[in-house]
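User: Please fill in residues for this 422-position structure.
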């Protein structure tokens, strides 16, 4: 069948407009199916974008660990023993566990929403104070607004410098005042501000980051008399090594170094970001799968409607089909004509549904952006090009299947019987 034959398209148009109300409601079923599929997929993507943005650029192959009280006796030590991680642990992990790529020991002293611990002139505030190595910002990056991050020389020379969050700057400095080079007093000790940062996360974690101050690890350790104590470690696995593998090896090593029963699961607290990220990814795969099932089901209802209307059209055009057969039209000609009509109806209705669905998602996104809404649960609803093309392919295939039964019905009509049909 020639797709560029104008007579064929005129015939399709005549058949569809013969009963416009019936054609409209049949096409509406296909339109609604693809429209709902697009909106649901876009909404699922919006939810996914919001959740993933909550991670910021956090290294997903990372894990954290901290010391807790032991829950089992071992080598003469009683249960309930307290202990601390140390600087030597950092060196030992780097030296003995090749599965580890980055290790960032951290100290934390705080007053966020607690007692005031930072003073600048007449202004005071309560903030989280962290002692860090530069590697920590490779694991949990932030956006530098001005100045710089902590570097290796700051740690080596135990410099009294600070990198402050944007909310800290708002509290301690006047609007338009440049914090760079200014001094703040942290628990009675002066530190020079060399950097201003903003969190890449959203929601409560972004607020926490904004109310934080980063100091060189060695400076905080010495200045506030922490000795060689480490509060907790942030660690990433080596390339192509699962974080769970590196985590297990580190836990075994740390238990050995601190004389902890190998079976004691309470002595070292730990949190695996990779596991949580995989759980989240699996959840969204499930959500998208459910959306496709519901959407395809809705679309299938519309396709059945198209198939039914094509059966009615075939019945109404029995005499016409008989004339075509009598004049030499082959079964393939009849089948291709019916299928083309079904594909045209489904594709046209589905394409309109696709366009309106995408337009609605774009409108919602634009309204959210213009309103300045900082949603933690919904962000940039959209569908990508691949999904759109998949939806169109589903429409074409559905149109073919919708036309198969009516087409088989059409070719089963004998020319003599068709010509007698009234």
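Assistant: Residues filled in for all 422 positions:
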């Amino acid at each position: 069948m020639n797709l560029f034959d104008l007579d064929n398209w005129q015939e399709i148009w005549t058949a569809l407009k013969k009963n416009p109300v019936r054609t409209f409601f049949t096409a509406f079923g296909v339109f609604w199916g693809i429209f709902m599929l697009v909106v649901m997929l876009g909404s699922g993507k919006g939810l996914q974008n919001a959740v993933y943005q909550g991670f910021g650029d956090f290294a997903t192959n990372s894990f954290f660990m901290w010391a807790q009280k032991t829950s089992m006796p071992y080598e003469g030590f009683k249960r309930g023993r307290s202990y601390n991680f140390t600087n030597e642990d950092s060196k030992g992990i780097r030296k003995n566990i090749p599965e580890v790529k980055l290790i960032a020991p951290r100290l934390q002293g705080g007053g966020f929403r607690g007692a005031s611990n930072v003073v600048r002139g007449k202004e005071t505030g309560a903030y989280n104070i962290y002692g860090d190595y530069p590697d920590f910002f490779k694991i949990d990056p932030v956006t530098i607004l001005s100045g710089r991050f902590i570097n290796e020389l700051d740690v080596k020379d135990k410099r009294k410098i600070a990198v402050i969050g944007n909310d800290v700057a708002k509290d301690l400095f006047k609007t338009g005042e440049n914090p760079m080079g200014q001094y703040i007093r942290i628990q009675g000790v002066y530190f020079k501000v060399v950097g201003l940062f903003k969190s890449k996360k959203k929601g409560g974690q972004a607020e926490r980051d904004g109310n934080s101050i980063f100091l060189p690890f060695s400076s905080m350790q010495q200045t506030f008399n922490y000795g060689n104590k480490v509060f907790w470690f942030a660690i990433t696995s080596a390339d192509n090594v699962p974080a769970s593998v590196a985590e297990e090896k580190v836990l075994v090593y740390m238990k050995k170094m601190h004389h902890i029963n190998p079976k004691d699961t309470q002595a070292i607290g730990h949190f695996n970001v990779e596991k949580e990220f995989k759980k989240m990814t699996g959840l969204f795969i499930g959500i998208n799968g459910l959306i496709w099932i519901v959407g395809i089901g809705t679309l299938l209802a519309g396709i059945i409607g198209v198939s039914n209307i094509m059966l009615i059209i075939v019945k109404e055009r029995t005499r016409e089909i008989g004339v075509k057969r009598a004049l030499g039209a082959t079964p393939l000609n009849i089948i291709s004509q019916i299928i083309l009509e079904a594909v045209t109806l489904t594709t046209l209705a589905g394409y309109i549904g696709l366009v309106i669905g995408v337009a609605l998602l774009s409108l919602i996104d634009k309204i959210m952006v213009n309103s300045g809404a900082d949603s933690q649960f919904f962000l940039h609803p959209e569908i990508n090009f691949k999904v759109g093309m998949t939806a169109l392919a589903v429409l074409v295939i559905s149109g073919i299947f919708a036309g198969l039964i009516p087409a088989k019905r059409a070719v089963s009509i004998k020319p003599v019987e068709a010509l007698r049909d009234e």
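For context: The mean pLDDT is 82.
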